[in-house]
Amino acid sequence: MRRAFLTCLLLLGASAALAANPYYLDRNGVLWKGTAGAEGLVLTGEQNGAEVVRSVVPFPLAMPGTSDTQIQVAADELTGKVAVVWQRNWNDSASEIMLAVWNGGSWERIDHLSQDLTASPRNPAIQLTSDAIAVPDLDHPDDPTATVTLRDSFLHVVWWEGTDQSHGTYALLRLTAAPDESDALLEQDLDGYSTLGLPCNVPVPPAALEHPIFANQASADRAVLFFGSQRQCLFLLLEVQFAAPAPPPTGGGVPVGTQRRRSVPIFGLMKVFPMDRDLDMDGTRVMLGSNLQPVAYRIDGSLVSYVTYGDQGWSPIRKLAVADGLSIDQAIPLVENLAR
Q1: Between 153 and 145, residue with greater pLDDT
Q2: H/E/C letters for each residue in 113-152?
Q3: Is the pLDDT assigned to residue 297 strictly greater than 80?
Q4: Which helix (H) or strand (E) element contains residue 335?
Q5: What is the pTM of this model?
Q6: Domain count of the chain?
């Protein structure tokens, strides 16, 4: 399964504009939208041209000059919950990454994902995944063929924060957990996966560094994250997938059939790349082929600028002109086909 996954082409949307998508169309035909309003963050749902949901996140703008940006919305099919992630800018030097979850007519939770306002957390990106894992049926311990299916949904969030020692931060919310479950939300400093390479002795341009992104691929049971590390001057490719939980102990205590069993997140570093200081990741997309060598491109007016990665490292930045009958719709597949 992993081999099949690696042979798929992965499309990574890398710009703040591309990542910050305030719209989400669910399978019931409801178009969800997050909007920055004078009263705060507003979630609306529209179906067949009629507004069916409108609610303000109960976390109002507290002072003049406060604003909400980088709004992203995702609706989970399994639970019916709608998640909103956004960047709350308190002033020019203080911000935070916020998360709110709408569930069945009310706000189930509101979380301050980032912990330090002065670290200027910025450029959030999100990804929904779900998994279904067959495990032994604990209510029938004498039947080795009896199984039950554990189904979970997750919201993955990543953002950049810090000034001198800046880094990416990752958060995972189990949407299938109850609001009061203490382990429903976890966070990690992504620099913990940066253990190879040379320290960055020269500051990396923010456009090359500060835009961690998720893959948009066919495998809905995992997330793939492409991000930079200022600590080691590397781009890293990190996979988050899920495994069955360890069987609970037998014997006394709570009956085994009533014990909670949740799939366990597994983090795996797939590949690292040297960081090209001239690579502008703001407004860029990245394609990965089966060999995990990326092709990064962006649209600059009438040009598609792109770089490829191979045995000799990053190529020079190349330009493909959109002219003489070659349209953007035709040019983009030509560049994406360079992924192998």
Answers
A1: 153
A2: CCCCHHHCCEEEEEEEEEEEEEEECCCCCCCCCCEEEEEE
A3: yes
A4: helix 328-336
A5: 0.84
A6: 2
